[in-house]
Amino acid sequence: MHRRQWVCEEHNKEKFPTKDLFVDHVNKFHLSAVASHRLPLLIEMSERQIDEMETTRCPLCPEARELKILENHLAEHLESISLFVLPTEFEEDEQANKKEDDKGSHYAAGGSPSSRQLESELSDEKSAGRNASQGEEER
Question: Max alpha carbon distance in the chain (Å)?
Fold first, then answer.
């Protein structure tokens, strides 16, 4: 990573993550000491590459990590988040079983399907078969 920061040598090497924040700091605390035509030079001289061994807080958890391993740490968070939103096989199987159980328990309790239920199920099956054959024809 080639991340940059700006350092104020006058204020105990205070670090600024953006150039704009550094310029604001200079304007607030050092305006009288720096001529306006020298400000671009001061900004350039104060820019530093961030040390990879420097520790930084993770933006997603309270842990602090060295910059060189923060990227992998963040990738783990992103993977966890992405896996969280994906349905699991267990959830899908459970939903399918519940639908089958609902039908089966009705029939097992001595209930017989009404002619409308049978027609609806038969119509759904035919329609699924038609859609599948149409998909094959388009290929």
Answer: 94
Structure tokens at 138: 């388009």
* Same structural domain, 14 and 38: yes
pTM exceeds 0.85:
no
How many structural domains compose the chain?
2
> How does pLDDT run along the chain (139 residues), one tens digit per residue?
468 899 998 888 899 989 999 999 999 998 888 888 888 999 999 999 887 788 888 999 999 999 889 889 999 999 998 888 887 776 666 777 776 666 655 554 555 555 555 555 655 665 555 555 555 555 4
- Please give the structure tokens belonging to residue 49: 């590459």
Helix (H) or strand (E) segment spanning residue 133: helix 115-138
CA–CA–CA angle 56, 62, 65 (5° rounding): 30
Q: Is residue 126 part of a domain?
A: no
Give the integer Cα–Cα distance in Å for 93 and 115: 28
Residue 100, SS3 per DSSP? helix
Same domain, 1 and 37: yes
Helix (H, G, I), strand (E, B) or coil at 35: coil
